[in-house]
Amino acid sequence: MQDGIHYYRRMHPKRPNSPSPQRRDNRRPPASPAFDRLIQRPVCPEDDRPLPKIVAKGAVWHPFLFRRQLGDFDPKAQPGDLVEVVNTSGITQGFGLFNPKAEIAVRLLRTGVNQPDDVWWSERMESAVALRRDVLKLDSVTDAYRVIHAEADGLPGLVVDKFGDVLVAECFSLGMYQRAEAILSMLEPICGTRHGVMRPGPNSIDHEGFMAVPTGSEGLPAKSTIQEFGTQFRVDFAGGHKTGFYCDQRDNRKKLAEFCAGKSVLDLCSYTGGFAVQAKKIGHAEDVTGVELDESAAALARDNAKLNKIKLNIVQADAFSYMRDMLRNGKKYDVVVLDPPKLIRSRDEIEDGRRKYYDFNRLAMQLVAPDGILLTCSCSGLLDLAEFSKIVCAAPEFGRRVQVLMKGGAAADHPIATICPESEYLKTMWLRLE
Ligand code: SAH
User: What DSSP line would sit under 377-409, residue for residue?
Assistant: First the structure.
């Protein structure tokens, strides 16, 4: 977790084309090309000069254009620029954000001949917010939800979560990071929020060649309290993982609570206690243990228990060691949740990651009491449901009957783009172990 948060002066929402403001604080490092690329810019270029052209060697439809799929780059194209993608005959195919340092060198915003303008950006944002508010009606159950889910909302490289009156943007591409202030300024009036946070995605140095600290609007509180089905959770904007809270498991937390009345519950890799708190608060579990490696996340889980006036046993430990200890002690739980972090982050990690999923699941299953429930999850996009299912089905001890009750995924505010099946990252399996 990172300490502290830097502040930015917000752009005026009505003037997306105004010059970018400089940071107000005096912590700005000496000017360097790497830092200059982090200077904020409006969503669209400020002048009418023709966009730099990038040649695509094949068909242009997927939101990601990898470097190997591209031909010549216009030498004028700068990292983070909006570029025109043309075919080898020079005919326009679409428009995207460019970063020659990234494996995904262009993230496509729009196919066809029309350049994305301010109206296009506003429409994307309004449509994304309308899905959450008007279609899914999320405001009636929570004030924490995903407002923009990258390519599934037509904005590859960008996720934005809303936590009460704070919007948190996590930027997976340099181009989106450079536009984050402008995007937040456009989203604020649509969402009715007051504060914004922008942060790079994990490993932005390796993936995109830039580094940045989480940066928030002036007056941003360090932490905030959100509610989900009436249960309160603290969100730490500076120190939390990803955007600060995992909205994708909202419906699964509620569903799991339905199995918990009067039961003993073990929440493995519990982060700030999402499943654990809901198991007790709305599920009325008898006793609940959460196991989390990260000390500050475990501390926040304890705060969440206090906030909701419930008793939880939160243990700061490695889930593997904890499970082995409990097995040695002969301990069993009626309901077990296993929601590990992304164990496969790149193709090189597939074999190792599969083994870890197997080991995690094998141990967790041995802790499930007879006729108990296991909810097991994988958030590795590189492991599809069929593969995950094979691993999980191979994990029970010989002779134990295991029933798959349901398979599922993330809540609907994390939609899947049909043109980008790898955006189906979260998989869940609900098991009953006799
Ligand atoms: N279920 C949670 C989200 C879990 S995210 C929710 O509903 O909010 C995965 C968590 O696993 C992270 O908090 C990470 O710190 C933790 N983690 C990673 N490795 C771990 C390990 N070996 N043992 C315990 N926790 C671990």
Answer: EE--TTS-HHHHHHHHHH-SPTT--EEEEEEEE
